[in-house]
What does this fold into?
Amino acid sequence: MADKNVDIQSMVEDWARDYFRRKATKKQRKLIDKDYISLEVDWKKVKFEHSEPKYEPEPPAPGSGVMKNHTLFNTTFCNKMANPQSYTFRAERTTRSSCAISIEHSVTKGFEMNLKLATPESIMEANAGFKREMTLTNASGQVIEEELTWGVDSQIQVDGRHEAEAKLVILEEDYKGTFTVETRIRGIVRVVFLNLKDNNSFVKACEGPVTDIVRQVLDRKKISGDLMSIDGANQCVVCKTRGTCQFRYGLQQKVEVDQVKL
It folds into this structure.
């Protein structure tokens, strides 16, 4: 069974503590043994590059997926006169386009997950209110919502001695699938050691290529599956994020009118 999440921050901190113990003086070793040494990891010189997500199955073209009617507003016009009458049907309502995302496997940086997930092109073409990229920050998953406003201002002709029901209906589309995003991490990570017993005073610092650090950790602790690997040719760490997604959004609106005799 593959690991669910891997924390690259913890991997760097484990490497840094091992470095500290190997280089520490007798006094410094006492400090770390008594938990008086804190670590600050600096990622400023490290790049996280995310690939375009691969969605399966392929998201459908607008209007060709799973569709459902949803009534936003309805009203009744009653014409007791013998002649036809015209009535104004005016309404404005708001709906929410949503994308529910669940993360199955990912690489995090501490408690943070900062992943840019591109919205499928076909869903962008539907003008459903989604931004071109969605930012994922919760390692377990999250729901992203955007508002859409629908409106109608129509004249409804009602026959004499008839009652008409007018409805503002939107056609909703639903897409469920899985996604995979590949993240390439490269650069120099720096770790600063501080003395908690002496008002967080500077003790020492170390730094190294993130590929070398992760390689050393992976040599000691294997990670199952293909969640994390080293691309030696391009000198980068390759991580994969997998999850499921469900998009639900309004696609188009229509006005339905039904008349019955009084």
